[in-house]
Amino acid sequence: MATTDAPDLRSALGMLRGAGELAEVTAEVDWNRELGTVARETLRRKGPALLFRNIKDYNGPDARCGQVVTSILASHRRIALLLGLDPSIDNRSLVDYVTRTNRERVTPKLVADGPVHENVLLGDDVDLTAFPVPHWHHLDGGRYINTFGAVVTKDPVSGIGNAGVYRGMIADRDKISMLLVPSQHWGRHWAEYLRRGEPMPVASVYGWHPVMDFLAGSPIPRDVCEYDVMGAYLGEPVELVRCRTVDLEVPASAELVVEGYISPDPDRYRLEGPFGEFTGYVSDLPTPRPTVEVTAITHRSSPIFRGTLEGSLPGASGENSYMSSVQRAAIAWHALTTAGVPGITDVYVHPVTNGTTIVVQIDKVNEGHAKWVAAALWSTGAALYRYKYVIVVDEDIDPSDYSAIDWAIAYRVRPGSDDIVVFPGTFGSPIDPSTPLEDRSIADLGSGLWNRMLVDATRTWRYPPQPQWGGARFPPTVAPAPEDLDLVRGRWAEYGFTGWDGGPR
Ligand SMILES: Cc1cc2nc3c(=O)[nH]c(=O)nc-3n(C[C@H](O)[C@H](O)[C@H](O)COP(=O)(O)O)c2cc1C
């Protein structure tokens, strides 16, 4: 039997509540568009995680599930808290912690039974609409049940499990149509099932400790099961139970699990899309796609449905944006280290780009250093949806500061030179609206096609040293001399400034 105080969604929510990072919404809210709009407006106001407890059509005495939680990971502060870190930790330390912990493993533990099997629905009792799955955005093609659900599959050859976040829409009371991209890890499993002409077993887990979402939504290497990494983050083995109708394992204290199979027969595909995607656009067209045919639903008593409002908008980025800003920076840093690229001093992903743009700060060791960085990043599988723009800056540019990046681009980049390099026709995102539709056909191309760009915003070494610049190749800046600054800061109080913030900068 599962341990009663093992980490799960409820323990995480308790922690967030205690830290003032969870708002419980008791006013009635409609699952149809209103809930998603409340989430967007809360993101814009930089608000807390939201637990909706009074959802229209799901607040009667017979409701199977009456609660939805969202926006758990929508701030660096909450991500740090949930990882057991100081909530005010700086980017470099947070990214460093994640880079290291992504590489640690704690083997999960199989237990005989757990709360997720308190309720088991089979046959005619299977009804996905019994759960308050939001219609998140008015242009979505339907009710998206898989937004932050971890989709569990197993490699039929190696037997290694995978948990990934892949979107899915309720296509019927017992069907979920999915965006199944062949180059994702479950896509590789799917390729083997297609070859064999067999249905692929799938289990979607909605609601467990948020480290599950944090890792399932990030590219952990294919030969590693995300459960092993979740255990490393939690400092204890993840307790798993066997599913009831598919040969897969899920966390014993998950809130809700949907089990089923995806048939290889294209006649059984159902329409999927469009969906308000992480790009901030509703750029996909409804397309018949692989569909989970549900064989069982299992859930805790009084389950909490876990979902997320996708889509970055300037000033109102969501959970995927914040977790990607940490994970995509950590994965990039690891890739750079593994490729032997020296002198990496910081890696920053501005949440609104989700990692489509990445800024790498270097202590430059050679004139080709920025190209080395870009080549290493573009050669990783993690670049599928990310790293379209790689901006490389020197050690004096804070990569989290847009004005510093802008200044570096303004005066360290020479358009028309190889400071800007375009790498055309690479594998890339099928949901980027800047790419023409024919270049993002997964069916034809296997992925989208991306032209990528490196902006080398470091000071060039190509200019000859100038004696007037103390032998440097690039001119000095207007920053005060350290001794002048020391003098002025030492005398600051004597200048008698009042009525404005005259404190030291
Ligand atoms: C909220 C959220 C939604 C996502 N939706 C999708 C999706 O619909 N399809 C997809 O291929 N990847 C999606 N991703 C990205 C994948 O989860 C990510 O690429 C991850 O690495 C996939 O797992 P894998 O590496 O084990 O394949 C999403 C990520 C997040 C955080």
UniProtKB/TrEMBL annotation:
The keyword Nucleotidyltransferase does not apply. InterPro entries: UbiD, UbiD-like_C, UbiD-like_N, UbiD_Rift_dom. Residues 112-311 form the 3-octaprenyl-4-hydroxybenzoate carboxy-lyase-like Rift-related domain. The keyword Lyase applies. It comes from the Bacteria. SUPFAM superfamilies: FMN-binding split barrel, UbiD C-terminal domain-like. It holds the Pfam family UbiD_N. Its EC number is 4.1.1.-. Keywords: Lyase. Residues 16-95 form the 3-octaprenyl-4-hydroxybenzoate carboxy-lyase-like N-terminal domain. Residues 322-456 form the 3-octaprenyl-4-hydroxybenzoate carboxy-lyase-like C-terminal domain. Transmembrane segments: none annotated. This is UbiD family decarboxylase. The lineage of its organism: Bacteria, Bacillati, Actinomycetota, Actinomycetes, Micromonosporales.
